[in-house]
Amino acid sequence: MHFDLVDMRLFVAVAEARSITHGAERSALALASASARIKGMEAALGVPLLERQRRGVRLTAAGESLLDHARIVLHQMAAMQGELSAYARGLKARIHMLANTSGASEHLPKALASFLAKYPAISVDVEERESVEIATALASGAADIGLAVDAMLPEGLDRFPFCDDRLVLIVPSGDEIARRRQTSFRDVAVRDFVGLTEVSALQSHIATHAAQLGVRLRVRARLRSFDAICQMVEAGVGVAIILEAAARRYRSTRIKTIRMTDPWTSRRLAICTRGRQSLPRPVQQLADHLKMFAKV
Question: N or C: which end of the chain has fewer CB within 10 A?
Fold first, then answer.
């Protein structure tokens, strides 16, 4: 059984894209070459890793297991390369941080900016993930530190509360429900929506709760920023669920913010890591710095 790093990176790309074609593009490989590599991995293992479907692929149980191991191997290789090259380039540390959508876009930038100013030899890569994925990545060693919904974190991770995080509904000021003080997701789930792109952790979170109601969201427009979403709602394209902090920042008399009664729209975010004693010193320094910015 001989897998090289190209195989590992390709398999992770295919698994995340749920497509051999898109995985090959992300890995800068020809489709035929990528397909041959995947088949070679399956032949070496003696077990199928992917279920080929009409629209992409799905991981088998063996494929899920390989994905976890591949991510750990790639993260460790990247950490090794980063640490060794740091001596040559004078860069002492690079921290891999995971955060949910609200954390990455609203709650972290100010705190991280002051940390980077204080520690010029440390760099931080922030990657957006759903809270459940963040917990898994930290436990497996695929990331150094995370900001996630506290209620979704398992026992065994060190954590401290960072901030409260509320989702609200925004509607055009002339909408029929604009005079309400609060509403439930069930009451608006069948409306036309404006949302973030499909790769957004927050958008996936909202879609999951819609599915639990037996509803598939009608998203008329997908955008990359909360300000752009507010502009679309303002124009009457649809309603949207966004962060309360983002709605307050936009400040427009042509949209109305309505609180939601669903428990999942009111969350507490926490900074989380593996056991503190096992953390590299730069990660400990970041955690200590973020604790000073905690708002709860």
Answer: N
Is 91 a residue whose pLDDT tops 70?
no
Strand pairing report for 122-128 and 93-99: parallel
Tokens coding 56: 């992409």
User: Which residue reads 């709605």 in tokens?
Assistant: 247
Q: What's the 3-state SS for 187-211? A: HHCCCEEEEECCCCHHHHHHHHHHH
Domains defined along the chain, listed by start? 5-69 (1.10.10.10), 73-163+267-292 (3.40.190.10), 165-266 (3.40.190.10)
pTM tops 0.85, yes or no: no
Place of tokens 């042509």: 254
Residue whose tokens read 């790769």: 199
**In which residue are the tokens 């940390």 written?**
115
Report the DSSP pairing between strands 218-223 and 93-99.
unpaired
C-alpha 204 chain-centroid distance = 9
Burial of 110 (0-12, 13-18, 19+ CB in 10 A): exposed
Radius of gyration of the chain (CA): 21
